[in-house]
Amino acid sequence: MSSYISPKVKSRKSKIGKGLFAIKEIHKGELIIDFTHAPGKLVTTKEADRLYEKGNDYMIQVDENIFFAASNKREIEDSDFINHSCNPNSGIKVSLKIVAMRDIKRGEEITMDYAMCESSEFSIKCLCGSPRCRKVITGNDWKEKELQRKYKGYFSYYLQKKIAKID
User: pLDDT per residue over 4-14, tens digit each?
Assistant: First the structure.
């Protein structure tokens, strides 16, 4: 099986390596990626950390201590190359579906904010170049009230539950 990737999207070289780009206009709410049937497996945070240390950063957190990850090179697909931006154009529906948060123009890179799905202990330097760049992305960014307002309805299901508990 493989993940669904919209026929309106193609992978190609981006400013930070490889990325996904719209080859046709994508409308707000339109499904861009669905990892539901993607190759990969559920792994614990400890296993995800080991994969990351080996250079495998193709995963999405789906619960407190659970990640859906491409656990080897054979499981990596074009859909895995969605990059982070502090000013994203896509977000998460449920846990494994990526949808357009706004209309996306042809030629635009498809991006999401890792704050929409990550709550693990990590921090990385941000390379998005957005005027509102946070400079450092962490597993605690989802707690920022401004981001909670900005991404309401686009957080993964498990983070939406966490946000509801603290409101």
Answer: 999 999 999 99
